[in-house]
Amino acid sequence: MRTPEAAAAPSPGAPLVQARGVHKSYGRLQVLRGIDLDVQRGEVLCLIGPSGSGKSTFLRCINHLETIQAGAIRVDGELIGCRARNGRLYELPEREVCRQRADIGMVFQRFNLFPHMTALENIVEAPVRVRRQPPRQAREQALQLLERVGLAAKADAYPSQLSGGQQQRVAIARALAMQPKLMLFDEPTSALDPELVDEVLAVMRALAASGMTMIVVTHEMHFARDVGHQVAFIDGGVIVEQGTPRDILVRPGQERTRAFLSRLLQGATS
Question: Which of 13, 72, 121, 153 could form a disulfide with 117 if both were Cys (CB 3.0 to 4.6 A apart)?
């Protein structure tokens, strides 16, 4: 139960994603310390920052894989994980949370594919079980998505028969099969060998070009520069600064941002 000061009804034409005063703690450890963030429809927001800064935790809060202690998050105008009643916020039952999650695709660092299912079966599973989509329709859609991510020939392959980059592309197709309003990417290339990174980023670039709203936690600065509409630098559970890729990556205004980018550049050249 939380107080709803940050959960005021959105105005007409509001952003697809709105976060207001988001706090998240694990015991005494404060991970998020008041995140305010808007993501417009069709926009790509890249979240950058050092390890442990709260980026992935915030992403998991958006689809209520983590419960926040204060503040509010809305997706398409709907409060995530709670409802307002009699001046207070109450947690939604799990069934309602699952309904909300169905509209928010998420791609993790690790691919999380079902090892006993083929690529095609991995993609078909959720639309049939969650969306109650007819199996034949779900299969046709899955084949189209595999073609979209360049894996039409791998429909009958099991995850163990696929490279890491191929597995991640299947994971993206699986998320898209639910026809989400929003896609969340949690460092989707960090578990890949360097030569496999580009094939995943190419799929993400095409997805961004199609108009999908995306929030991407990444250390791939070239992707953030070329594809991102906005970049937010998070450190210590707060947004230190946010702006266009040119504002943040080329001429950051805060010393903490400059120091982070300098360390990142040194690591890339060492």
Answer: 121
Q: Give CA separation, 245 vs 20, 130, 140, 158, 231, in Å.
A: 23, 37, 38, 38, 6
Q: Which residue has the higher pLDDT, 4 or 225?
A: 225
Would you state the pLDDT for residue 84? 86
pLDDT band with cut points at 50, 70 and 90 for residue 10:
low
Element (H, E) at 48: strand 44-48
Cα–Cα dist 192/161, whole Å: 15
- Helix (H, G, I), strand (E, B), or coil: what is residue 94? helix
The C-alpha atoms of residue 217 and residue 67 are separated, in whole angstroms, by 19
Rounded Cα gap, residues 206 and 211, in angstroms? 9
pLDDT range class, residue 2, cuts 50, 70, 90: low
- Cβ atoms of residues 97 and 135 within 8 Å: no
What value does the CA radius of gyration of the chain take, rounded to a whole number of Å? 19
- Is residue 264 very low, low, confident or very high in pLDDT (cuts 50, 70, 90)? confident
| Exposed e or buried b per residue across 203-225, where buried means at least 16 C-beta atoms within 10 angstroms of its C-beta | bbeebbeeebbbbbbbbbbebbb
Nearest Cα neighbor of 41 from 187, 206, 213, 236 is 213
Distance between CA atoms of residues 81 and 78, nearest Å: 9
Kindly state the tokens that stand for 13: 């034409």
Our measurement of the distance from residue 95's CA atom to the centroid of its chain's CA atoms, rounded to an integer in Å, reads 21
Q: Measuring CA to CA, how many Å separate 200 from each of 6, 161, 223?
A: 36, 17, 11
Residues near 167 by beta carbon (within 8 Å), at least 6 away in sequence: 111, 113, 159
| Matching residue, tokens 């109450």 | 90
